Each structure stands twice: as C-alpha cells, then as structure tokens.
Amino acid sequence: MQAVAADLRLDANAVDFVLLAIYFVLVLGIGYMARRHVSSSIDFFLSGRSLPAWVTGLAFISANLGAIEVMGMSANGAEYGMPTAHYFWIGAVPAMLFLGVVMMPFYYGSKVRSVPEFMLRRFGKPAHLVNGISFAVAQVLIAGANLFLLASVVNLLLGWPLWISVIVAAVIVLSYTALGGLSAAIYNEVLQFVVIVAALLPLTIVGLYKVGGWQGLVDKVSAGPGGAEQLDTWPGNQLTGFTDNFLSVLGLVFGLGFVLSFGYWTTNFVEVQRAMAARSMSAARRTPIIGAFPKMFIPFIVIIPGMIAGVAVTELQGDNKAALMAGEEAPSGATFNHALLLLMRDLLPNGMLGIAIAGLLASFMAGMAANLSSFNTVFTYDIWQAYLRKDRSDGYYLKVGRVVTAIATVLAIGTAFIASTYANLMDYLQQLFSFFNAPLFATFILGMFWRRMTPTAGWTGLVAGTLTAVGVFVLTETGVWELPGQGGAFVGAGAAFVVDIAVSVAVTMVTQPKPAAQLVGLVYSLTPKETRQHETTGEDAGWYRNPALLAGIVLVITILLNLLF
C-alpha cells in the first residue's frame, strides 16, 4: 500500500488536535457507558429492542454514512459529477421507503435476530449457511474499505506510515464496539451524524464561495475533462460506462435503482439491525423513513464538495484529472479518493480543520462499527451457535460476540490493503454489492411473495446469482467486456438478479416446497394482516408517526429533486 506524497499532508495545529482529542473521549465514553447496560446477548446484539425511532433513524442513516457516502461519493463527485446523486434519489430513498412500509413488519414481527435467521426460517439450513457466510465475508471486505480511508486521514494528519495508521484506527473502533455492542455503535452513530454534518456543510459553503458560487462551479466543470454532462443527473453515461442513453438509463433504473438499491437497503443486516433495535413495530417501520429525510439532502454536502475539488484542487485538475478519468495514475500522485481531504487542506482554517477531520473520522468509524456490530451478530448466532456450538449459556455467546468483534477487526486490517488498490472506492464497493446483495435480494423477494418457492431453490439460486456477478466482474476486469465507470457492477447486479430468479423458478418446479403452516409470518400471502400492523396508541399515536404518510412525503420530495436536477 503506497503512502500518499508529502505535499498531500494536512497542516493541523494544536487547536485541531485538542478538538480531535475531545471527540475521541466522547466516543470511548459512550462505549463505556453503554457497557453498563449490557447484561445479555440481546442487549449486546440488538440493544434490548428498546431504542426510540429518532435514535434508530439517525443511526440507520449514519451507519451508511461511512466511506461509501463521504469519501466514496466525494470521489464520485470529482470524477462523474451530479449523476452521482442517483445513488441517493434512485439508489437509496425508494428502497428505504419499501423497507419501512412493506418489509419491516416481517423482520420485526417474526422476532428474528438477523437477516440470515429469516432465511433459515423461510428456506432452511443450506440457504441460511450460504447467506451467513457470504454476509460475513462482505462485512469484513467493506469494513476494510472504511478502515483504509480512516487510516488515510491519520496518515495525512500525522504522517505515520499507512500500515501503522490502519492498526491505530482499527483499535479505536474495536474499543467502543466491543465494550458496548450495538447500543454503543448506535449512540455513537447519532453523535457522528451531527459531527459529519457540522463538518461538511461549512466546507460546501466555503467551497462554493471559492469557485464563484453555483454558476462558477457550472462554468469550471463545463470547461473540464468531464464537460457539461457532469452537471445533469440524467442520462449519466460517464457513470454507467454506456454510450447509449437508453442503456445508461436502463442500467441506472434497473441495475442501481432496483437490484443494487433494494438488495442493499432491504436485505443488508447492517441497516436492518438498526431498525430491529427499535422499541416497537411502529418505531421499526419509521426508522428507515426517518433516515430517508436527511438521506435526500446528503448529496449537497458530499457530491458538491467533490465536484468543487475536481475543479479547484491543483492535484486533481487538468492533466491529473484527465489521467485519473482514463484509469491511469495522475502525475500528482493524488487519486479521487483524496478529493475531500485536499479540499479541506486548501480551504479550511485551523480549528475548522479539526472539526472537519473529526467529521471524517466519525464517518469512517460509523461505517466500520456498523460492519463490525452486524458481523459479530451474524457470525455468533447464524454460524457459531447454529452449526458449531449449540445450546450454550447466554453469557457464553456474549463472550463469543466480543471475541469475534476483535477477530473481524484483524481481518479488516487485511482487507484494507485490497481497498487501497482502487483509485475510486465506489468502484470497489459497487462490485461487492453486486456479488453479495443483488442475488440475496432476488432470493429474498421471490421467497417472500411466492409461497411455492422451495428450500432447495433458496440456496441454489443464491449461489448461481453470486457466481454470475463474479463472472461479469472477471469479464470486465480481463477486458473481454469493455465497460468503464461503474457500469460493470450495474450489469453484474442485473445479471445476478435475473439468473437467481431463473434458477430458483426452475429448481422449484422439480423440488418439494415447505408446508404452508411453516411459512406463516414469512410469506406475504400466508401472514394475517393484523400481525403486519403496528400499534397506533400511546408512543405510537399521531399522524406524524404514520409510516405510510411519512413515506409519501419523502417520495414527493425525491421526485421533485430528480426533476430539478
């Protein structure tokens, strides 16, 4: 892993380091306080199902506000411009609303502790084991991406070798996650959400002033290597790699907006775990919808700064940007992953720089802690307890969860070096989602709405879909299929979805389904309507707590944003 050049260092002073120290004291303090309330495994893994909707809602969005959002989307903004907003308005919000309105009653009502456990009840052990292993591998790989970016900040800040920065960053996240479990992660995620917004909003405002306002940014982007195409979200050809407008829109709507998006938001236990920690079904349903409100506007504080960096930061301008967009190494040694850090270096005074760095560290720790807390739940319950050590005491599984958290951190240190080979981490992350989330969503959605689907179809479809996505990745990486941008991931996800469905249907036709009595609460048509409804009295009363109404408001605003941009 190459350390970035010396001229990329952040010029922090004593004020910045004091602010960072205060932030870390708060983070570790929350972990210590949360530990006092952990007396059982359900406390450690699901916060005792006791948290209010506003806490789980902010944690829901903050868990996603890691490397993917902050550095990844800023890198995408610098490389592709406004089409990156599709990851929010097409590739997130609709699926978040679907999760809250349609799917959370199944998750929360069945009292499952993880998504793989839902797969176990619906399809049996083979599908459960395949899903548990694939999810665990995905979380370690994604945690490595968050850890690499966290270490990059430490490297730029202190000048330490990147491998030392990786280890120090990992120890900090491990400390509070292992202490307080999911409660520590969730409460820290609420704090981190506030810090992230406090850091990125001023940077966006100062950056726009630097380039002459919105019109100045428009003029500079239009004159750059990406051209005026980077100012409109549609058709997004540079992002998808398609030269044909129709194929590009199809890739965005089907590959990203349906398969990748719904696959991530509705079956990714990192997110679902936050909603399942809510104190009631109503609060659980509102969790992703509450998270959708800030999600709609995050593009303005992550993509816009990336676009500004692409036209205002010396190391990303002209020949440097053209080289990076062509997939080559920039003469400056910078990559698009550095966009936000370099903008902070150039624009923010000391003090503000400290807050901004704390915001970045917060985002990476939120993302990595989310990966660790979901990994330890799935590994402990769905692999260790289910197949290796059954019928042990609750205290035993609590200890296993803490040990597994440490092991996952060590593994993430290794996968951080894989992430370091990508100039734009969004390319890496979208590939991972096409491998793991797209086929799971196909199996999940078919099994939830088609009672005839069999247990054998569950695991065979999952394996076939995953292998298909890997196959598309190999074709694009070896040059057999020329598809630049993130189009390879979109095509891989779409192909995985289609193959998974086709294999599942074919296998179902020749295998035996489960009895209908065993599918109540797991299949939509067999689940009584009253069990899918939430309470509307007490803490759940009031029109402003109605999940369907809140979802409708979010959907209208999202449509308006798509029309405006």
UniProtKB/TrEMBL annotation:
<keyword id="KW-0812">Transmembrane</keyword>
<protein>
    <submittedName>
        <fullName>Sodium:solute symporter family protein</fullName>
    </submittedName>
</protein>
<dbReference type="InterPro" id="IPR038377">
    <property type="entry name" value="Na/Glc_symporter_sf"/>
</dbReference>
<feature type="transmembrane region" description="Helical">
    <location>
        <begin position="400"/>
        <end position="422"/>
    </location>
</feature>
<feature type="transmembrane region" description="Helical">
    <location>
        <begin position="548"/>
        <end position="564"/>
    </location>
</feature>
<feature type="transmembrane region" description="Helical">
    <location>
        <begin position="54"/>
        <end position="75"/>
    </location>
</feature>
<dbReference type="InterPro" id="IPR001734">
    <property type="entry name" value="Na/solute_symporter"/>
</dbReference>
<feature type="transmembrane region" description="Helical">
    <location>
        <begin position="352"/>
        <end position="379"/>
    </location>
</feature>
<feature type="transmembrane region" description="Helical">
    <location>
        <begin position="457"/>
        <end position="476"/>
    </location>
</feature>
<feature type="transmembrane region" description="Helical">
    <location>
        <begin position="288"/>
        <end position="313"/>
    </location>
</feature>
<feature type="transmembrane region" description="Helical">
    <location>
        <begin position="160"/>
        <end position="179"/>
    </location>
</feature>
<dbReference type="InterPro" id="IPR018212">
    <property type="entry name" value="Na/solute_symporter_CS"/>
</dbReference>
<keyword id="KW-0472">Membrane</keyword>
<feature type="transmembrane region" description="Helical">
    <location>
        <begin position="428"/>
        <end position="450"/>
    </location>
</feature>
<feature type="transmembrane region" description="Helical">
    <location>
        <begin position="488"/>
        <end position="510"/>
    </location>
</feature>
<feature type="transmembrane region" description="Helical">
    <location>
        <begin position="87"/>
        <end position="108"/>
    </location>
</feature>
<feature type="transmembrane region" description="Helical">
    <location>
        <begin position="129"/>
        <end position="154"/>
    </location>
</feature>
<dbReference type="Pfam" id="PF00474">
    <property type="entry name" value="SSF"/>
</dbReference>
<keyword id="KW-1133">Transmembrane helix</keyword>
<feature type="transmembrane region" description="Helical">
    <location>
        <begin position="246"/>
        <end position="267"/>
    </location>
</feature>
<feature type="transmembrane region" description="Helical">
    <location>
        <begin position="191"/>
        <end position="209"/>
    </location>
</feature>
<comment type="similarity">
    <text>Belongs to the sodium:solute symporter (SSF) (TC 2.A.21) family.</text>
</comment>
<feature type="transmembrane region" description="Helical">
    <location>
        <begin position="17"/>
        <end position="34"/>
    </location>
</feature>
